[in-house]
Amino acid sequence: MGDLFNSENKELLIWAVPLLPLLGFLINGAFGRRMNLASSGGIASGAVVCSFIIAVYMFIQYVPTAPIMSDGYTWMGTAGFRIDFRLLVDRLSGLYMLVITGVASLIHIYSVGYMSHDEGYARYFAYLNLFVFSMLMLVMGDSLVTLFLGWEGVGLCSYLLIGFWYKEMPNAIAGKKAFIANRVGDFGFMIGMFLIFWHFGTLGYTDLIGRAAEVAATDHTLLNWACICLFVGACGKSAQIPLYVWLPDAMAGPTPVSALIHAATMVTAGIYMVARMNFVFVHAELAMDIVAIVGGVTALFAGTIGLVQRDIKKVLAYSTVSQLGFMFMAAGLGAFHVAVFHVFTHAFFKALLFLGSGSVIHALEHTLGHGNPDSQDMWKMGGLKEKMPITMATMTIGAMALSGIPLFSGFFSKDAILFTAFHRGDLLGYIIYGLGVLAAICTAFYSFRLIGLTFFGKWRGNEHAYAHADESPRSMTMPLIVLALFAILAGYLWLPPALAHPIGIEHPWFEEWLAPAWAAAQSTLPEGSHYRFSTEHHMGAEWMNILISSVIAIGVAVFAFMIYSKPQGLEKVKKLAFVGEGDAQRMTPWYKLLLNKYYVDEIYEKLVIGPIRIASDVLFVVVDVIVIDLLFVNGSAMLVKASSDLGRKMQTGYVRHYLYAFAVGMVVLSALFLLIANQR
Amino acid sequence: MIALFWISFIVSLVGSALLITQKHAVYALLGLLIAFGASAGVFLSLDAPFIAVSQILIYAGALAVMFLFVLMFTDTRTEEDVGLPGAVGSRAVFDPATGRPSKKKKKKADEEEKKPALSGMVMPKPMAVAVSLALLVCFTATIVTLPSDYNRFGPLPSAYDGINFEGVERSADQIKTDPNLLPFGSTEAVSRTIFEGFPLAFEVVSLLIFAAVLGAVLLARRHLVGIPGTQDVAKESGHA
Amino acid sequence: MPEPKVVLFLAAFLFCCGVYGVLSRRHLIMLLMSLELMLNAINIMLVTFSRHWAGKNHDMLGSHAGQFFTLMVMAVAAAEVGIGLAIIVALYRRKHTADADAATDLKN
């Protein structure tokens, strides 16, 4: 082993990280049907765990000193166009690599238990491995093209996994919806890539960062457009307004998939891309403002929808959209390190919450039957804490981290985002701060509503299901416990200065670690730019910020928990939501609005899908049937027929006669050529 | 080089003569192969080694084998196998009972099918000789009247600069050591021409070959139940 | 080094042999073979012109353009033979003959 891990084998190691999951995919994809459950799940999990171990080794051994660059080969190259295919592991991608393989390992292990009764067991693990491979290509590639390769790859895997139970129509439709929403974003992303290539002639990060000064001097209109287009792509992948609609529907897939793809990894690809291109984004102020505002509005918008959802996974889905909004807020304000920090903490507690909800669903599905919506309806749960103590404890930790209860990881990252907005000190900063605080209130509320409804109070559903509900097997609870540990500890990598300075930490690890990723951009920024990282600290403002967010988080969480864990509280909520009694009972307008997600899907149906459908009908009738079919196809055919009626008298049908005509024509032509050439 | 050229010259004349005179298809194919091999020699003597090797690989290797296979499939070895020479409408007629060509039925069918209008238009072999000779005369005259710089080939540059695409004069040692210096006709020079000069044409040809593969598969497949457009062999072989 | 005009004459001769073969054969496979000979003659001509250009102008792309087109002709010839032979096989299935004069269904 010692021999394997010497520095000459860097090349081998860096390729092993993405290729091991690919190998797992190939084995499971090709032979999965003939393998038993244990070997199929074991190979898939083993591949990801191995690549996690290698990633950890590389992260500790090489990444702190210098970025690792694999040998490249030319992927496409013709005159004036050249794309190299190589892997790059620097501090940013190293961190992502670690989170992806780490969370994916836990989720693979969890899936071994969760999917054990599914007939598509091998297919599931093949897709999951392919996803991990694509995601690793996305973060480890050295150019936007490699990123795009992974970007499309994860999109494909997402489509495959959302529609995993494709025999039920809604699942297939949800898969298609995700794919199409992503395509819209990808279109913008490609245009952004073309703009950058058009101007700089390269798409490699290393090349572009090397020319950061040139980027800074470029026309800002171009940079703005390029960045806006790239952000459209990020909107699609990271589920921001207006392209977020696919993510809640994506919950049709198996729950571990929701945890891996739609919470911890794929949806953070947009943040990764923005952070990767930070040296371009910081010079596109308009695009940055758009990013921040879209992020802020999405955070609040999705947070309010999350308040009223009844489906346990839908709550978490909207919560994910909302948290992604937080990340974009930070990125749009120039605090890319804060955004990445929130990605980092969010990966753990959101994966934990999803896996916990999966554990609950798994326990109820056992008696209610697979795919029964009752197994996900929180109004038909309650009091599960006695049946599933481990799930309850870990999920409560996750909810505390999500709502930003002090000393849990979410607190540190969310606090950093809010403080960044507050500290900016102009109108935009205060608007973002306000949106952020409101969204944080929603977050705390729906998190503890979920905990209260699911685990506390009295059971409100099928008695039989409650009697048979049981704690999940070890392979499912182990990942929960590990993730719960990380959900607490991850935040301590970056204590806010107000807490860090008194205990003698001058530079928190996380900030220090990521500093090289922004160095190029920072060096090109003019003095006094919003996006320069300030070195001075305002203890007073920070303490105030910490106090405000702690009070909000704790207060709202306790309030929500008090209401939803008691039957009297539930009665009060029902009074708020419904008017009238019995058959005359109707929803109050605000409840109806939120429950129907602000009617965004219906608006899209009317404004986008409807017109497209009408336009395609019109095009079909006018262009296809009349112009093309009648005029061009049949018309030209009739024209040809009419003229060929004249010409066909000459046709004997013998190939030789045509050949003679051809040869004689050749003789005549060359004789003519000879005559003309000699006359000159 | 000049000896190689003249040998190839004579051999290719012999090969092409074989091709156009032999009645038996396999011998004709042998003539074609000889002509192709000799052409490879001509390419070599013209400083085009890569083309010479491709010629052997593609024509002699791939095409000849394909011809042989189809000869095997169709079981028609000679001109006579496909009908009597010099007459129209004299294609083989098959006895539905045995599935083999029947001379008696064929004679009858010939009588029936001999339509005056068509048989008058049959081109005899002398006419083919006349047309191709006329063509040869025209070509030769054109070649003879070419300007005087076609009297001999000019000297080649010793190597091309593979980066600047320009002819440069370098010593043999330099050519060996400098990877960017490419001799005329070498594989690397030709491939640089393909990928840096004509990448689009190259891609288009790859599409063409793809289409040809698809087309060949579609044309040659047997009848598939339920798929329109494919011929039902069993039904149609009765009345050829 | 051979003289250009001699090589061109060889190409012309091979081409005319091909034309004679195409005109006189009725066996479709032999007809295709003659067609191949014509294409081969064209290749010889292209390579000759490529060499001739290289002796006069010393740019790399221009000198090798003729050889490049030779490769293109080879590719097209391969495609053509593939399709041609497939057509012959299909014809043989239908009519049990490879006679060029048998395929007269398109007359009039």
Short characterization:
The complex is a heterotrimer of chains A (680), B (240) and C (108). Chain A has helices spanning 10-31, 37-61, 91-114, 121-140, 144-162, 169-200, 205-210, 212-217, 220-237, 246-249, 255-264, 269-276, 278-281, 285-306, 312-332, 336-368, 389-403, 409-424, 427-455, 463-468, 474-489, 497-500, 509-524, 539-564, 567-577, 589-595, 600-647, 655-679; strands spanning 68-69, 73-78, 81-85, 88-89, 578-579, 586-587.
- Number of individual domains of chain A: 3
pLDDT averaged residue by residue of chain A: 87
**Which strand order spans the largest sheet of chain A, edge to edge or round the barrel?**
1-4
Going by helix content, strand content and strand pairing, the class of chain A is mainly alpha
Tell me the number of helical segments of chain A per DSSP (H or I, 4 or more residues long). Answer: 28
Quaternary state of this entry equals heterotrimer
Number of helices of chain C: 3
The total domain count of chain C is 1
Low-confidence stretches of chain C: none
Verbal overview:
The complex is a heterotrimer of chains A (about 675), B (about 240) and C (about 110). Chain A is mainly alpha-helical and about 675 residues long. Chain A has three domains: about 1-140; about 145-530, no CATH class; about 615-680, no CATH class. In chain A, a hairpin with a 2-residue loop joins strand 2 and strand 3 (about 80-85). Chain A has a two-stranded antiparallel ribbon. Chain A contains 28 helices and six strands. Chain A has helices at about 10-30, 35-60, 90-115, 120-140, 145-160, 170-200, 205-210, 210-215, 220-235, 245-250, 255-265, 270-275, 280, 285-305, 310-330, 335-370, 390-405, 410-425, 425-455, 465-470, 475-490, 495-500, 510-525, 540-565, 565-575, 590-595, 600-645, 655-680; strands at about 70, 75-80, 80-85, 90, 580, 585. Chain B has about 240 residues and is mainly α. Chain B has helices at about 1-20, 25-45, 50-75, 105-115, 115-120, 125-145, 170-175, 185-195, 200-220, 235; strands at about 160, 165-170, 180. In chain B, strands 2-1-3 form a three-stranded antiparallel β-sheet. Chain B starts with a helix and ends with a helix. Chain C has one domain (about 5-95): Helix Hairpins (Orthogonal Bundle), CATH 1.10.287. Chain C has helices at about 5-25, 30-55, 60-95. Chains in contact: A-B, A-C, B-C. Chains B and C meet through helix 1, helix 2, helix 3, helix 6 and strand 2 of B and helix 1, helix 2 and helix 3 of C.
